[in-house]
Amino acid sequence: MTSTVPALGTRTAEGSALQAVLLDMDGTLVDTEGFWWDVEVEIFAGLGHALDDTWRHVVVGGPMTRSAGFLIEATGADIALAELMVLLNEGFEDRIDRALPLMPGAARLLAELSEYEIPTALVSASHRRIIDRVLTSLGPQHFALSVAGDEVPRTKPHPDPYLAAAAGLGVDPARCAVVEDTATGVAAAEAAGCHVVAVPSVAPIAPAARRTVVTSLEDVDLAFLRGLITL
Predict the structure, then answer these.
(1) How many whole angstroms separate alpha carbon 198 and alpha carbon 181?
(2) In terms of C-beta density within 10 A (0-12 exposed, 13-18 middle, 19 or more buried), how is residue 164 classed?
(3) Helices 160-169, 183-191: crossing angle, 10 deg rounding
(4) pLDDT of residue 67
(5) What span, in angstroms and rounded, lies between the C-alpha atoms of 127 and 202?
(6) Sheet bearing 120-123, strands edge to edge
(7) What are phi and psi for residue 80, nearest 5 degrees?
(8) N or C: which end of the chain has fewer CB within 10 A?
(9) What is the band of 66 on the pLDDT scale with cuts at 50, 70, 90?
(10) Which of 68, 78, 103, 111 is nearest to 181 (CA)?
(11) One Pfam family from the UniProt entry (predicted)?
């Protein structure tokens, strides 16, 4: 977990209780959810198995152990979980080395949060080796810290990653805005007590208490996030 934490004496809007913004990575800031599925399809094809496209909704957004384990069980493929996880990470790294498209609005939002010195964390179920490669493109200067899925006892949908990020920033989870693209990530953020903005990438997400659903990060700016959490 990186830990260059800025002072919390940030410029805030009068009446806003927002202390920090916590952002998911795959499918939220970078358009990579499809990369994972493509890698999974390719690997299992090499093992002699075709993946059912409906399984994509099962594996999206979750920890690699859960996704990989599900696919092994569903296909009956003769491969160990640890071996499959290595292949998945290697295949994903190969794709992001070739291209790493940002989601619409991501660069603008990160720049605005940096300009106004809003403590910001990257919180992902991806492993540290993946996060560090993506950070070079996103700009590590935009994040006070990052939390990887292989650095917490339990990753999403458990609250541990978001609780770790809030603790690392020294803020109250109830005064954090989280931006997520999957039901798994939303569940983790809500279990941590955060306010959530859902930007669905693969499967629909319904609005709920303390949860706002938008169609794109282009609909999200600092004023919008501050409006979620008021004194």
Answers:
(1) 5
(2) buried
(3) 50
(4) 86
(5) 21
(6) 145-147, 120-123, 20-23, 176-180, 195-198, 211-213
(7) -75, 150
(8) C
(9) confident
(10) 103
(11) Hydrolase
Whole-number Cα distances in Å, 24 to 103, 119, 135, 197, 230:
12, 15, 12, 11, 23
Please, is 131 exposed, middle or buried when counting C-beta atoms within 10 Å of its C-beta (0-12, 13-18, 19+)? Answer: buried
Kindly report the number of other CB atoms within 10 A of residue 78's CB atom.
9
| Mean pLDDT confidence for 108-129 | 96
Q: Which two tokens stand for residue 212?
A: 């706002």
Query: How many CB atoms neighbour CB 214 within 10 A?
Result: 16
142: three-class secondary structure by DSSP: helix
Which pair of tokens denotes residue 181? 């693209």
| DSSP code of residue 166 | H
Cβ-contact 15, 230 below 8 angstroms:
yes
Q: Among 44, 57, 50, which residue's Cα sits nearest to residue 87? A: 44
Instruction: Give mean pLDDT, residues 143-154.
Output: 96
pTM comes to 0.80
Q: Among candidates 22, 64, 28, 58, which has minimal Cα distance to 43?
A: 64
Contacts of 75 by beta carbon, 8 Å cutoff, 6+ apart: 44, 47, 49, 51
Under 8 Å between Cβ of 121 and 169: yes
What six digits make up the tokens of 96? 């992001």
